[in-house]
Structure formats: structure tokens, C-alpha cells
């Protein structure tokens, strides 16, 4: 990119997760944990008027999906952290996201070691050179150290608090061919998708 040409602004959007049975308790808990550098958070990267995030599912395909900025289903928007300007032009960004979409498959999701915040960290760094703050994922890192004390399978993809839309599952069959020809998208959109499918994230872990 030319030195005199600025890339688009990039934001790390941070959310409090929600529990379907007690919608506000995680938000209230996070107000206390936040002061200690902890919390139960979902996050996504906003750039060029779109937000990209990562969730798990049990089938083949990407776990990366797109939703309306600051309106993630099943989570309460907390704050937008500016990461600065992208090092890449707007027209280069879709290819970067497609590359990460193929790296972050739904079945690779792990609650503690490869979650939505890990994806946001990777995409934010790819676009701006800046990492996500450690506090958004610190509690998940602690969870990995005590996993032996938690229920079996708690870190499996289908336990993801935010699940990728099932429409993303077909990306390898449909989108990869189009990508090779210079078009298409491996990223699913939640807009217009039934929320029972797009947002099975009514769980209380990050």
C-alpha cells in the first residue's frame, strides 16, 4: 500500500456472553471481573462496515462468519477497541479473511486454546500488526490449566458459546472453487439466517 494511502479503520468489538436462562448474570459478573483483567467475552473484528468472528460446529467447513457490526447474536456489546488503520487496502482485505477462514475450521474450535478471541487476535494482527489485549482471553487460558477438573468434552466444537452458522459448512465445496477463480466467499453471513441455526450460543462460557 502506498505511504500516502490509508487503509480502513479496524476495531476489536468485545461482547459479554449471555446465558439463555439468566440473560444478565454474565454481564453483571463481567463488571467485577473486568477490573481484575478477566471476564467471559466474545469478540469480533470490524472493518469496512462488516464484523468477522469465529465459532465452532461439528461438521466440515469454516467456523468464520460475518454479522452486523456490534450486533452479535446471543451476546451483549460491551465496547469497541480501535486497533488503528489496516496495513492493507480495502480490496485486499477479503482475501486475507478468506485465508483465515480456511485456517479456522469449525471443528478446530477449542474453548480454551482456539476460540473467537484467538481468531480476533489473529485477524487484528494480520490487518494492523496489533494484538488483542490479553484480558479478553485470559480466563479461557486459565480454564485450560484446570480442564481436568471440568466436565468431559467442555472444549469440543459443539460446546462453543458462539456457533458458526451451518451455511458456512459448505464453503469448501462451493466457495473454494470460486475463490480460485477470483471470486466468491468462504465466510458465512448471519444476516437473514434463522437465529436458531446462526446463534446456538446460549451457554455461559467464553
TrEMBL record:
It comes from the Eukaryota. SMART domains: DUF862. Keywords: Hydrolase, Protease. Residues 180-206 are annotated as: Disordered. GO terms for biological process: protein deubiquitination; proteolysis. Residues 8-154 form the PPPDE domain. Coiled coil: none annotated. InterPro entries: PPPDE_dom, PPPDE_sf. GO terms for molecular function: deubiquitinase activity. Pfam families: Peptidase_C97 (PF05903). Belongs to the DeSI family. This is PPPDE domain-containing protein. It comes from Rhodosorus marinus. The lineage of its organism: Eukaryota, Rhodophyta, Stylonematophyceae, Stylonematales, Stylonemataceae.
Amino acid at each position: 500500500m502506498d505511504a500516502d494511502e490509508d487503509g480502513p479503520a479496524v476495531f476489536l468489538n468485545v461482547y459479554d456472553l449471555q446465558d439463555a436462562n439468566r440473560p444478565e448474570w454474565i454481564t453483571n459478573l463481567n463488571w467485577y471481573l473486568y477490573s481484575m483483567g478477566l471476564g467471559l467475552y466474545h469478540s469480533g473484528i470490524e472493518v469496512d462496515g462488516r464484523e468477522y468472528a469465529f465459532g465452532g460446529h461439528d461438521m466440515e467447513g469454516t467456523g468464520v462468519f460475518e454479522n452486523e457490526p456490534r450486533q452479535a447474536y446471543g451476546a451483549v456489546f460491551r465496547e469497541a477497541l480501535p486497533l488503528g488503520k489496516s496495513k492493507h487496502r480495502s480490496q485486499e482485505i477479503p482475501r486475507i479473511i478468506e485465508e483465515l477462514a480456511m485456517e479456522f475450521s469449525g471443528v478446530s474450535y477449542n474453548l480454551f486454546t482456539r476460540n473467537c478471541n484467538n481468531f480476533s487476535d489473529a485477524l487484528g494482527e494480520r490487518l494492523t500488526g496489533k494484538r488483542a489485549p490479553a484480558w479478553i482471553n485470559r480466563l479461557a487460558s486459565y480454564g485450560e490449566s484446570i480442564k481436568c477438573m471440568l466436565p468431559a468434552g467442555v472444549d469440543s466444537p459443539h460446546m462453543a458459546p458462539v456457533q458458526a452458522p451451518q451455511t458456512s459448512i459448505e464453503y469448501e465445496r462451493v466457495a473454494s472453487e470460486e475463490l480460485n477463480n477470483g471470486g466468491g466467499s468462504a465466510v458465512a453471513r448471519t444476516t437473514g439466517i434463522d437465529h436458531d441455526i446462526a446463534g446456538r450460543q446460549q451457554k455461559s462460557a467464553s
